[in-house]
Design brief:
81 residues; mainly alpha; two-stranded antiparallel ribbon; 5 helices
Length: 81
């Protein structure tokens, strides 16, 4: 894997999430692109996996993303326990 996994934290509702990067989250929320735009762009799966972590995606939702490899999710599952 070329990108490290983000640390995990629980949100106010007790959902396990990746710790978001506030700058990346701001760029997504304020920028001209949304998740649908980004889905159409030619990024590789590793970059998409890291992006999902940086925006604070939930761990359970992360496992459902088609670009998240079994290897990557297993590395997260070991952290969650």
């Amino acid at each position: 894997m070329k990108h490290p996994n983000q640390p995990l934290e629980k949100d106010s509702e007790g959902i396990q999430r990746f710790k978001q990067n506030k700058i990346v989250r701001y760029l997504l929320d304020a920028g001209p692109f949304d998740m649908n735009d980004l889905a159409l762009m030619p990024f590789d799966d590793e970059d998409r996996q890291q992006f999902a972590q940086l925006i604070g995606y939930s761990v359970c939702g992360y496992s459902d993303l088609d670009y998240v490899s079994d290897e990557r999710f297993e590395s997260i599952s070991e952290t969650v326990g």
